[in-house]
Amino acid sequence: MKKKNVEALLYSTIGVVAMLLILIAFNVIAAHAKQRIDLTAEKAYTLSPGTKAILAKLDTPVQIRFYCTKNVGTMPVGLTTYSQRVEDLLEEYQQASKGKIAIQRLNPEPDSDAEDSARLDGIEGQPLRTGERIYLGLSVAILDQKQAIPFLTPDRERLLEYDVSRAIARVMTTEKPVVGVISSLPVMGQMNPIMMQRGQRGQRAWALIDELKRDFNVKQVEVTADKIPDDIKVLLVIHPKAISEGTQFALDQFVLRGGKLVAFLDPLSALDRPPEMGMMPPPSSSSLEKLCKAWGVTFDTSKVVADLEHVAQLREGPNPTVLALNETAINKNDVVTADADNLVMAFSGAFTGTPVDGLTETVLIKSSKRSQLIEAAMAPMLGAQIANNFIASGVEYPLAIRLSGKFKTAFADGKPKPAPANPAEQRPEEKPAEPSLKESAQPTTVVLIGDADMIQDQLAIREIQGVGQRLIIPLNSNLSFAQSTVEQLAGDSNLIAVRSRASRERPFTVVQRLQADAEASYQSKIKELEGSLAETQRKVNELQMSKESGQRFILSPEQQQELANFRRTEANAKAELKNTRKNLRADIDSLENRIKWINIAAMPIAVILAGFSFSWLKRMRAAR
């Protein structure tokens, strides 16, 4: 008996030691292998196909220098944890590049060669309260081309893959992409003849154009152009008022040959007022009606969006047609709008309809459900007048959208024939029609924005005249939104497929639906109560006006009875609202408690049941 006990103890000890050695060996192998299993539904921790396509183009070694402060006493714990995730991602890049990417890890301690290297690479140290600096950035280099991400913050973790892939794509190209600009407005600057005679300086280019010139070769295209130059990769169309069918045909062919189009349209361009003598012209509108119709999108220039949830505060008072949009109106899961937190749009239009087969629509900016389409002519009215007649539609109107896919031509009969300047003149002999594209060979992208005023200097920036230079201070995210849109489309086409890292937030959709239903019920009760109040006040006023002038401030028995009836109605409505909220809270609490208990108890119960099952199977085998 004693011998059996010793053998059992010995075998148990050997088993524990063997299991410990197996776990150690597994951890060592896993640490070197750096393989991760992505179980998220969105594959948020797997390199996207766009990134893999960019890495497949590498034919020259790429060096990534990763600068990270390793001093535990200096580096905050959150950044230390985040730096490990960044390092894991970089190793995935290294594996996917098949040896084309080399990673150099540097610890920029004070007064070290690594700190000097970080400064030369454009990596910025962030100062702490103690006066010390911490580093967490990277530099990507191919030969003499270099791109830096000065500081990596956890707030941009969803965009980390995009930032790294963009840096790699930029160092792979030596020439600046060409961005074309078509506009009926003086976006490139303008020299007025009258101002020249007076010796005054002309109107300078918009701040957006100056900013784009830093990263791109910006080329102006006439608004009457019948062909877009072949070297233009991205075309920026700003307020194309009275655009001809010939120019729309040029845009159509540009998109079909693979060009990227960004169009700022406007149902009411309030800032389109040229500084000329004489009467000010009425506000103008712009659209790409022919193209939008072919894409399945409608942009009604007779309507603007009013939104009571995103009302901008103006000097004249709040106006629901001038929208101050916060994060609830912005698509935070898209690379283009992920960093935008406050946008201002004046008299914006809405995009409706369903894109045709082959095109996918992504809404970048939208209104709230407390919005309404109103006549464009009413938009400049006082905000109070609009609010008084406001009726919420319950629809979230798209204010900016992106269309992706294979586009088909809007001109099935080919290039439209230009109308003669004088109808009485005899038409010249027509030449044979040039062949035109009917469908894009590869997927491409079009971005449509329903407001052109938002990128004008008056609405986007505040300008400070510095010594010999122009200093601009952004008033909102309008400028960065426009820059990000052009930047994404002008980069490697595969960057469009690099989606932002998925948010880890997992909301209780059922709970949110219950809250929304209760909120709708609550609002209907409020509306009913306000209607009752208005009706009672109307009756009281009628009774009051029927009295003689000397007795109008004395309540009659009839008026007192009306007020008593209203108070009873009000009390009943409040009691009913209280019960509604109580029942809602009970349903939500019950649902949350069930979900919590399932999350807490499901795994232990599963383990216990598995243990009982194995024990029962073992006994059955022993009995046999």
Quaternary status of these chains? Answer: single chain
Radius of gyration: 33 Å
Helical/strand content category: alpha+beta
In total, the number of strands is 24
Distance between the termini: 25 Å
Q: Give the helix level as a range of percent.
A: 25-40%
How are the strands of the biggest sheet laid out side by side? 8-7-9-10-22-21-19
Shape: globular
Output the number of helix runs. 14
Which whole number gives the mean pLDDT?
81
Instruction: Please report which band the strand proportion falls in: under 5%, 5-15%, 15-25%, 25-35%, 35-45% or over 45%.
Output: 15-25%
Largest sheet data: 7 strands, mixed
The residue ranges in which pLDDT falls below 50 over 5 or more consecutive positions are 500-505
Structure report:
The protein is of the alpha+beta class and 624 residues long. It has 14 helices and 24 strands. The chain has helices at 2-33, 49-56, 77-96, 113-120, 160-171, 193-197, 207-215, 245-256, 289-295, 383-388, 457-460, 478-490, 509-545, 557-623, and strands at residues 62-68, 101-106, 126-127, 133-134, 136-142, 145-149, 178-183, 217-220, 234-238, 260-264, 266-269, 284-286, 298-299, 303-307, 311-314, 317-325, 343-346, 351-352, 359-366, 371-375, 398-405, 444-449, 461-465, 470-474. The strands form eight sheets. The protein has a seven-stranded mixed β-sheet with strand order 8-7-9-10-22-21-19, with helices on both faces. Strands 2-1-5-6 form a four-stranded mixed β-sheet, covered by helices on one side. Strands 15-16-17 form a three-stranded antiparallel β-sheet. The longest helix has 67 residues, at 557-623. The chain is globular, with a radius of gyration of 33 Å.
